[in-house]
Specification:
The chain has 227 residues and is mainly α. It is built from 10 helices and no strands. It has one domain. Helix 1 runs antiparallel to helix 8, helix 3 packs antiparallel against helix 4 and helix 3 runs antiparallel to helix 6. It is globular.
Length: 227
Amino acid sequence: MSEENNVEAVFGWVGAIISIYFYFAPGFPFHKVLKDQMNYQDLPVTLLITSFLNCILWADYGLIKNSTQIYITNSFGGTITLLWITIYLVYLGKKYFVVSLILNILILIATGAISFLFYFIIDSNITGLICMVFNVLMYAAPGEKIIRVIKTKKYELIPIYSSIGGFLCSLCWLIFGFYQNDMNLIIPNSLGILFSVIQILVFTILYCKSGKNDNEKSPNSTIKNIN
């Protein structure tokens, strides 16, 4: 194996490992919900849905392109994301059992139908194009509440662990894409870096402002002002 192929393989597997972290990252807000520190309505549902569909499509793409890294990463990621969606629907099912049950059934049917459609019927070039679209949507999803966050100053609504994971994930798959000369990897992961950086910057700025405001409101600060 040439040195170039070695580097390509390394970034492929590093990207796979970071991708697994990215798919586990929604566990942090779920933990807050279970401890009553966050409303379940603030969970990153859009991220979960786009991640799940993204994984199904990219697993098919990995099979078509005979890429072990892409196939294994997205098969595992799809399983983990489906777990988060199931937990969300079970939690939702406490109030809306019938709706939750129907959604679970539809998800299973859609999984099989999409996999069959894109692997056996739809042209690989079209599959790659659609994969790009959902990859971009997945990386952009953590910023779905960005306008609300800016208005309310509630930086906690940004799933920062997913944003950080998205940045590292995009970077590795971008390099992997360059080595494979695959625009279906290069384009969405370039945008993924951009979206992730924006999310991280907004979170950091609001977090720092929040800390500054807390210091200004502290008792020591008040005493100093009085004196």
